[in-house]
Amino acid sequence: MTTKFTRRTVAAGLGAALAMPWVTRRAFAASTKPIVIGVPATSTAAVGAADHGDHINGTNLAVDEINKSGGVLGRELKALFIDFDPLSPESSKQAIAQCIDAQVDAISNPYMLPPIPAMDASSQYKCPYLHGSANRVSSEAVKANPGKYGHVFLATSAEVDYGWTFPLWLEHAEKQGAWKPKNRKVHIVQEQIAYCQTISKTAQEAIKKRGKFEVARITDIQYPVQDWSNVVRQLKETDASVIMIDHFIAAELAAFAKEFIANPVPNSLVYLQYGPSQPEFLTLTKAAGNGFCWSTVTGVYDDETGRAFRAKYKKRFPGVMGLVYTGFGYDMAYVLKRAWEGVGDPRKFKEVVNWIRTNPVRGVCGYYDMNNPYQETRHFPDNGFDSLQVAEIGKGQSQYYCQIQDQEHKIIFPNEIAEAKLTPAPWWK
Fold it and tell me: How does DSSP assign 224-282, residue by residue?
């Protein structure tokens, strides 16, 4: 909270309180206390700290901006950060319980894997719960039981879209001409958690349906990956034109990238599922990261709105910027601000939830329209697999693919928000 906001608010508040009869002072105190967003986000867990740290930074940036402009309904906005382990169901439930004990007005969370235990823990309290656990099981639970989970919103597309959109990108990359497939084979290397397994399954489904490529081999890995050399050996044996490393942890994907660069599969297009979006990847790989591709179902656009956000974020937090949960955390605070101001009272949870559902909002990561039975954002581009797909980027949130070029992330697909084209990787002849 800024000094300017504090002095103005305190002076006005004290004057008003002293003028009130005692019977109304209690109600006045309730109307002037800070509005609180509960933010379960880890800074210490082995998995998740990078994304969650981005979410914390994005939330703080939004909270400071909102308070500088007068707060919400004339009240200060605060964020209550709670450290936890996002891979532990028990720790996730405890984090939600701490939010409830603190009587927060809403919850903003990057992700919990699995998401359902935390949703269960919030089901009696029912404050607005916005999360980025790109996991269809969470939104399917909302659809199946809106009475229990109707306060929960998945403010991204689900992980199924990573797999369903994958062959669309491959076909687009081939049409551009920079990459000429040496064969039609795809080699998938898959981690064992449900998130990665779903991505692998939907990718296989989409590749078969479109019929332009074929899955030639699947290799299983288990976190933590101790040695990538055996994986690289299998990749060279298959010699597929397309390699998908279906794993999301930046440090481990950085280790793979270094191993691969030392002994590459010539002319293969290599996709590392999501993990390079985390700042740690570029910090660890440096030039060795050039040429690799990745994607995200939510991320800061490279349009006028997105560039303005990137500039002020980098000014506040110098260094390598994550493009995903920085913008997501920022957008969630503003979604809540608009809902609270639309309803007029943050404690009217049911009304605030309904406002979020029925009032789409444009943020730095695209268009948040969650007015559907899943209460999940609509996905662009249309991959033809479910009712949440949209054919116009302005009506949904765009998944985008990036390639690392000169140690920077460049959006290369879809064309509507692309800032560059796919360029030859260092291991292409």
Answer: SP--SHHHHHHHHHHT-SEEEEE---HHHHHHHHHHHHHS--TT-EEEE-SGGGSHHHH
Peptide bond connecting 318 to the previous residue in cis, omega within 30 degrees of 0: no
SS3 letters across 160-212: HHHHHHHHHHHHHHHHHCCCCCCCCEEEEEECCCHHHHHHHHHHHHHHHHHCC
Cα 81 to Cα 72: distance, rounded to the nearest angstrom: 19
Tell me how far apart the alpha carbons of residues 266 and 264 are, in angstroms, rounded to a whole number.
Answer: 6
Q: What is the pLDDT of residue 3?
A: 37
| pLDDT for position 32 | 84
Q: How far is CA 27 from the centre of its chain?
A: 38
pLDDT at 30: 57
Gyration radius from the chain CA atoms: 23
User: Residue 286: which residues within 8 A CB-CB, separation 6 or more?
Assistant: 407
Q: What is the pLDDT of residue 9?
A: 46
Other Cβ atoms less than 10 A from the Cβ of 203: the count is 25
Quick one: pLDDT at residue 429?
85
Kindly give the residue spans of alpha helices, DSSP state H, lying in 263-381: 279-285, 304-316, 325-343, 349-358
Which residues does the chain have with pLDDT short of 70? 1-30
Q: Is the peptide bond before 414 cis (omega within 30 degrees of 0)?
A: yes
Residue reference for tokens 């990238």: 257
The DSSP secondary structure of 399-421, one letter per residue, reads -EEEEEETTEEEEEESGGG--S-
Closest CA to 61 of 306, 304, 316: 316
Q: Which tens digit of pLDDT belongs to each residue from 239-294?
A: 999 999 999 999 999 999 999 999 999 999 999 999 999 999 999 999 999 999 99
337 contacts 72 by C-beta, under 8 angstroms: yes
